[in-house]
Amino acid sequence: MNVLIIEDESLAAERLKLLLGQYDPSIVVSGCLESIEETVQWLQTQPHPDLLLMDIQLSDGHSFEIFNQVKLDKPVIFTTAYDNYAINAFQHFCVDYILKPVTAAALANAIRKYKIMPHAFSLPDYHAWAEQVTQKISPRYKDRFLAKVGLRTFFIQTEDVAYFYADNKTVYLADKDGNKFVINYSIEKLEPLLDPHYFFRINRRMIVHSKLVDLVKPYLNNRLKLSLKNIRHDEEIIVSRERVPTFKKWAEG
To answer: Which 3 state secondary structure label does DSSP give 76?
Structure first.
């Protein structure tokens, strides 16, 4: 059995390789990839593995974006530190959904699930699975933030946020009136805390609120440029090329 590991934390990837070897020394790890871009390129040029171990949060976005860029019909074991991606996961050939840290028992159980499936991998009803997961998991997203300007701290409701923006190691919250505040979160930690119906991460440094997007225009290198309602940002607001397909689906609601 050939397994492809997609994990942007090197220690976590090494641990998965170790656990796979302990479970079955005959398992061949085809590769260890760290990003959406690297994975898409690999899958476009290499024979697809029998099984994928896929982290959800990668350095350049959610691994679900891989399915938008390459035809992939192989079973996947998803690994993540968050439980609020389960509904999406079970819509993408998901065998199992393991919360980190991945244990030997959890991984062994997931592989056993894969092995008892028909050899041709006859897909189960993922929509039914998603409904069951929806009933069991009720994601709770942040509805307010404590934000600072100098020594003053303000109480900001999430519905009043226009966008979040990272500048080096500092992350700013901008409200719908254009006021900017410092918050104690990274963009990576913010993303799973926000309702994806309203918020979208357009690039590595910025998350925008749908209600504040005013205009979308084509931009260089197949990217998109956004304008926000009555709000001025010091830099151009650009949707990165790899996120454009997902952004368009999100924009349609």
So the answer is: strand
| pLDDT tens sequence across 55-83 | 999 989 999 999 999 998 899 999 988 88
**If you average pLDDT over each of 121-135, 139-153, 182-196, which comes out highest?**
182-196
Element (H, E) at 187: helix 187-190
Distances (CA, A) of 6 to 41, 48, 101: 13, 13, 15
15 and 121 inside one domain: yes
Dihedral through CA 49, CA 50, CA 51, CA 57, nearest 10?
20
Residues 6+ apart with CB under 8 A from 179: 149
- How long is the chain? 253
Within 8 A by CB and 6+ apart from 71, the residues are none
Of 64, 2, 66, residue with least CA distance to 28 = 2
Residue 46 CB contacts under 8 Å (≥ 6 apart), including other chains: 30, 31
The pTM is what? 0.52
Structure-token match 């996947």, residue found: 76
Write the DSSP string, 134-176: HHH-------EEEEEETTEEEEEEGGGEEEEEEETTEEEEEET
Q: Are 229 and 214 in contact (CB under 8 A)?
A: yes
* pLDDT range class, residue 139, cuts 50, 70, 90: low
Locate 125 and state its tokens.
């009803």
Residue 212 belongs to what domain range?
Answer: 144-251
Tell me, yes or no, whether 19 and 111 share the same domain: yes
pLDDT at 137 exceeding the cut of 50: yes
